[in-house]
Amino acid sequence: MDLSTKRVVVTGGAGFLGHFVCQRLRDRGCREILVPRRADYDLTTESGVARMYADMRPEVVLHLAAEVGGIGANMMNPGRYFFANMAMALHLIEHARINGLEKFLQVGTICAYPKFTPVPFREEELWSGFPEETNAPYGIAKLAQLVQAQANREQYGQNVIYLMPTNLYGPNDKFHPAVSHVIPALMKKCVDAVEAGDDHIEVWGTGRATREFLYVDDAAEGILLAAELYDGPEPVNLGADTETPISELVEQLVELVEFPGELRWDTSRPDGQPRRRVDPGRAAAEFGFEAQVPLDEGLARTLEWYRDHRDEAEARPV
Length: 318
Known about the structure:
Number of domains: 1
Number of helices: 11
Order of helices and strands: EHEHEHHEHEEHEEEHEEHEHHH
CATH architecture: 3-Layer(aba) Sandwich
CATH class: Alpha Beta
Structural class: alpha/beta
Low-confidence stretches: none
Oligomer: single chain
Strand content: 5-15%
Radius of gyration: 19 Å
Helix content: 40-55%
Largest sheet: 6 strands, parallel
């Protein structure tokens, strides 16, 4: 598919990942990129979705919009996150079918995998158990979207593809404490501690949990490669083929920010899923995706952006 000739709607196009996806579309020469804004279209309602399709008349939809946060936000908002994510995709996929769209790309989540998935996570393991408890409502809502996509493909021939990125990070991320994920949350904590002259910082969990971090611009490229080249029914991981313990991540951030104090681990707080690293083989084989930005370089770019855009980064509560 030549996206430069298509009318493309990017839900969540004004957000963290969407910002980079829209830029990559522009780089490809795409001239018709439409971003539905929350103030104009409530995509959790069928009426809002139907009106968006009628107004924007897309040929392709890249559905990136989501309501999600880190462990704390997930624990505080399980009902909201389940409903919002379930409702958006339910109506968007169905009305894509009704309107005869050429293609619909659904961004899922690594949180859909079972809590004790063997590492590296292979797409075949999605149904082998229940997701980690703090992520489960969000993860199950996202997993249901895969079922809808595959069911519609089987019954109606609808072309819906489904991608599962690992933990994203990078410039334009959310640093508001209510919704930030692990890298922005820890980066802000380190920067604040240096400025306050604190002698220690407190970190949730044991530090033994691991995560796989994918630089956001790499993820954006993977999404567009899939939109251009992949038409299969099976879900596809997007990852960097690395696994980093949270303790090691914190040490990298402390060194990067030059915080001289002590680390104190609050082991009464949850670690979340014990380990995360995906098998990236399907993405490489199906549409040639390989991550390019190593973690140390990505963290340095993210810190530079955060320091230059601090008020903006910390002001975004959703």
